[in-house]
Amino acid sequence: MTDGRQTVLDSIARALRREGPDEATRNALERRLSDPKRNLIPARGQLAPEARVALFVEMAREAAATLVRLPSTTAVPAAVADYLRHENLPPQIRIAPTPELQNLPWREWPMLEVSSGASEGHDPVSLTPAFAGIAETGTLMLTSGRSSPTTLHFLPAAHIIVLRAETIVGALENAWTLLRSSTGDGTMPRTVNFITGPSRSADIEQILQLGAHGPRRLHILLIDAGQTS
Hints:
- This protein has seven helices and twelve strands.
- Strands 1-12-7-4-2-3 form a six-stranded parallel sheet, with helices on both faces.
- With 229 residues, it is α/β, with parallel strands linked by helices.
- Helices cover 31% and strands 22% of the residues.
- The N and C termini lie far apart (43 Å).
- The chain has two domains: 1-35, no CATH class; 47-223, 3-Layer(aba) Sandwich (Rossmann fold), CATH 3.40.50.10420.
């Protein structure tokens, strides 16, 4: 922690007349973090796997995202090429530096210019994996990390997301449970982003504008359950 940050926090603590949590408070917080209490799950989120996938597809499209279902991840490069051609986008894509995407058969599509790594704001299209999908709202849960730079989620004008059907959960609470169980040791990602459809805003004169705070297009490549290659 920087000296300036610590100075600010110390000033806030003094103003609140707090010297820091005592041992009892600290222990209570540790218990709460190690065994978080779940909120109620609405009936809408308590669905069988196939019904969850169907609801996610319906809600994602209602939120103005486009979506195609693929039999396996090896079909991703062809689906990306089709999408770029259909949307009249340049054949350039910046992908997340994860083996899940880098090891796909991109060489079969030599017309595609594929690069990987964080975006600096000049990439027209990005491709990233989703950690999970939330059926009740058609929302995507994305986590940050070395293999999933957050800049790829927001800077390009179009965002393509690979989502595995078996990671679609019913409700938001289920998504947090899945994330906690995946980390195991309790270490959470620095950033967790929830994306529902393309970026939009109607703050100015109640006129809807796409791309207000992020990509104007959101395209989901849904990999059918159990198919990863």
